Amino acid sequence: MNKQNLLIAFFTLTALALLATNWFTTTPAVAAVSVKDRDYQVVTARVQTGGDAVYILDNRTGMFGVFTYDPSARRLTGRTAQPIMNAFRTR
Questions:
Q1: Is 39 part of any domain?
Q2: Could you list the pLDDT tens digit for every one of the 91 residues in the chain?
Q3: How far is 44 from 38, CA to CA, in rounded Å?
Q4: How far apart are CA 15 and CA 36, in angstroms?
Q5: Closest to 39 measured CA to CA, from 62, 5, 17
Q6: Is residue 64 a contact partner of residue 57, using CB atoms and an 8 Å limit?
Q7: Distance (Å, rounded) from C-alpha 32 to C-alpha 62?
Q8: Number of domains into which the chain is organized
Q9: Which residues are 6's β-sheet partners?
Q10: 69 part of a folded domain
């Protein structure tokens, strides 16, 4: 086996290893998801203080709730639950 064949075999094995690594890696979780069904709407978003928030709207009752996840404490906390019309009220 000469030097050229050895390099071709090396690069082929490297390409196969990179292809296998790319094929089997998991995709990271993304928290920018919106789910809408007949009764509920759920939206996730980033919060300025760090972590993520889940906004849940109940279409039947017109209530919405906000829950935040604190990654340092590893805890889900309920922030508010009120009628959706309060968000559009003018002062």
A1: yes
A2: 688 999 999 999 999 999 998 888 776 666 566 666 678 888 888 888 778 899 998 888 889 999 998 888 888 888 889 998 887 877 6
A3: 18
A4: 42
A5: 62
A6: yes
A7: 23
A8: 1
A9: none
A10: yes
Alpha-carbon distance 54 to 78, whole Å? 9
The CA radius of gyration of the chain, in Å to the nearest whole number, is 25
Evaluate whether residue 13 is within a structural domain: no
Amino acid of residue 45: A
pTM here? 0.55
Q: Evaluate whether residue 72 is within a structural domain.
A: yes
Say which residue the tokens 């000469």 belong to.
2
Domain encompassing residue 57: 27-88
Length of the chain: 91
53, 68 Cβ separation under 8 angstroms: yes
Strands 52-58 and 75-83: unpaired
CB-neighbour burial class of residue 61 (10 A; exposed 0-12, middle 13-18, buried 19+)? exposed
In terms of Cβ atoms closer than 10 Å to its own Cβ (0-12, 13-18, 19+), residue 73 is exposed
